[in-house]
Amino acid sequence: MSYQRFSYAPPTAGKHSVGIAGDFSSWEIISMEEKGGVHYLALELPPGVYQYKFVVDGSWILDENNPKKVPDGFGGYNSLLVVEPVTEVITWEDIMAELANKTPEKFYQFFRSKENSYELRFFWYPELSDAIYLLYNNQQIQLAHIGQTPLYEVFYCLFEHCGIFTFRLKIQYQNMFLFFGAEGFSEAEEDITPIEIELKAISIFSIPDWVGHSIIYQIFPDRFYNGNKDNDPDFREWYYEDCRTPPSSSKILSPEKEYYHMVDDWYDINGLKQSPWQKKGVPDFYSFYGGDIAGVKQKLDYLLDLGINVIYFNPLWQAKSNHKYDSADYHSIDPHFATTQEMIDFVKLAHEKGIRIILDVAFNHTGETFWAFRDCVEKGPKSPYWNWYDWKKWPLPKPLPLDFNPKDYYQCWWGIKDMPDLNYDLALPHPEENAVRNIKEAHPNAALVDYLMSTVRWWLIDIGIDGFRLDVPDEVPFWFWELFRKEVKKAKPDAWIVGEIWYEARQWVSPLYFDSVMNYAFFKNPVIEFFILSLLNKEEFCRKIESGLALYPFHSLKAMMNLLGSHDTPRIFEISKGDVKRLKLAIAFQMCFIGAPHIYYGDEIAMEGGKDPDNRRPFNWNWENNPVAGDLRNFYKELISIRKAHPTLCEGHFAFIPAPDKIIAFQRELKGEKILVFLNTEAESIAIDIPESSILLLGKIAERNYILPHSALILSELK
């Protein structure tokens, strides 16, 4: 641990609210102390790589004292802090002295994935073991290294057992042995009493087996393919009444003025960078292109040819916007996507072809067009749904002025009028209600909760989908997600629950809440920062990856959604500035890493796009005319084929292995197979040794002394 000191001096005098937020605070804002006009904060941080920003009078800004920065995923940047590990060498003697003050429970942890399937994790000091063994039932099983926390290396093993589990551990270091048991550590094996654990007391954390074998393809429905022009948006719905008339060609609209409209030319993307009706720099957020479920159905062969087996849809319910996070009705299919029966038929067809469907849902807020919110707007406190929202003042002005401040009237997401927050706890305001875990400490809004549970059943049972991606779930109470999980697993036991958490998420990944999360913090960010942007060195990259592996149970790691891009971030081809070689290295790591690879529609054909809405361009169905697009798609296809053909890449153990400085090398191992992956990030070729028994999976013809160019090499080595 080391102290890191942060300071910020406002450019103007007067009273300012200054805080800091980052990975080290789970992006919660920490207030900074002011002295002489300068704001200070000292934090004790373990070694690691941290992104952060200052929060000044509500605005999020970079640390100008720190030149190192990385993309924040929203078109801007975060400051980057690298805390180096302490260089002091800890000796075996130091450890023996320290162990006397440690309780045994600090060194191990158990997880339970099925009735009799368990994982043991053991935490030990870095570089002070040659091997660690589990001793039980006269067996000796070597633990494998899985990851590293700032203080400990993490080892694990998977085992089957029924009943009381009695075990000890043996740590081997050079010619010395240390034994671990109920009273702690001893150098004498006979002094160690075995630990007894009633394993059945550990809650089962069941995650669908199919997730780890998934190749996920995310579709933003309006922008994939228009298969039925008869259901194109015509803006006849009541909520478009004041925002569907085109402005005059010479008129510049206020940024707050909405104009919803269709773009007749599928390939006209100019407005996504610059609206023709707005001042310079303001894009068109209100355009529609007509993509629908019929279009996805017509392009299923394209998806099957690519090799995907899960479609992740952004919201499909009726809503005013093109992104549909502002729901008008949770129990609906937007009629401009499909009828309810067409959606049911599509899900059945996808299942017949081996494709599962998961849906993006936003339960933190509804849209201002939502039927319950409209009832409140009309009736005020007399509405039976009045307490579904956090109201501050009523009635709303008619018509709403362009400078309308919704937060004066009701709580809403990020101050956006179109997204009023739902009120889960009748005793606590938003966001204080979110931290409550025990439902007995809450005053649940029963009618709202019952309605949301009926929504779960409608999508899983009536429509037939296979799981949910949860939008901003950290802004909803924990106790609700506990009820949600029970309802989901009751309706469909093998449904997948994956949360959108951008930082460390152990408090959500558990048998109470989510199966896994979108792996922004420990996959997307480090992979892009290392392979594409060269912002991390090899040691920093491996440390960040291993810190993620150390956090979650092994079977949950297999279900992490490993993404490189999404509807919330610039496209990876845009970030890479067209450097296909570096991009391919990131993709190769993604397809060979532990977890479920995720592809944002069009990334496989090198689509470009900056921040929202430019990253939501219509799919380029002329991609075959672009050699770069065809080459990249073939690369995806080949890697997906390799992954699906080798269960080792889905189920196997992961470990980095020694390699020359500019090469990332790792292995996946399962039963009788070992997959070796070498990724050369350097422009020049580098010599590596290849095991004699290797079979080439991806790469050029390999010799034993192979000269690896700036590319990926994947081998299968039979044991």
What features would you highlight for this structure?
single chain; 719 residues; alpha+beta; six-stranded antiparallel beta sheet; 14 helices; 38 strands; 20% helix; 26% strand; globular
Task: List the topology elements.
Elements: E1 2-8, E2 18-22, E3 30-31, E4 33-35, E5 38-45, E6 48-56, E7 59-61, E8 69-71, E9 77-83, H1 92-99, E10 108-114, E11 117-124, E12 131-136, E13 139-142, E14 144-148, E15 153-160, E16 164-173, E17 176-181, E18 184-186, E19 195-198, E20 216-219, E21 261-262, E22 287-288, H2 293-298, H3 300-306, E23 310-313, E24 318-319, E25 327-329, H4 340-352, E26 356-361, H5 371-379, H6 446-463, E27 467-470, H7 478-491, E28 496-499, E29 516-517, H8 520-532, H9 538-549, H10 554-557, E30 561-562, H11 572-575, H12 580-592, E31 596-600, H13 627-645, H14 648-651, E32 653-656, E33 663-670, E34 673-680, E35 686-689, E36 694-698, E37 705-708, E38 712-718
Parallel strand pairs: 20-23, 20-31, 21-22, 23-26, 26-27, 27-28, 28-29, 30-31
Antiparallel strand pairs: 1-5, 2-3, 2-6, 4-5, 6-7, 6-9, 8-9, 10-11, 11-15, 12-13, 12-16, 14-15, 16-17, 16-19, 17-18, 24-25, 32-33, 33-34, 34-38, 35-37, 36-38
Structure report:
There is one protein chain. The protein has 719 residues and is α+β, with helices and mostly antiparallel strands. 20% of the residues lie in helices and 26% in strands. It contains 14 helices and 38 strands. The strands form nine sheets. Strands 29-28-27-26-23-20-31-30 form an eight-stranded parallel sheet. A hairpin with a 7-residue loop joins strand 24 and strand 25. Helix 6 packs parallel to helix 7, helix 8 runs antiparallel to helix 9 and helix 8 packs antiparallel against helix 12. The longest helix is centred in the C-terminal third of the chain and has 19 residues. The chain starts with a strand and ends with a strand. The model has no long low-confidence stretch (mean pLDDT 93).
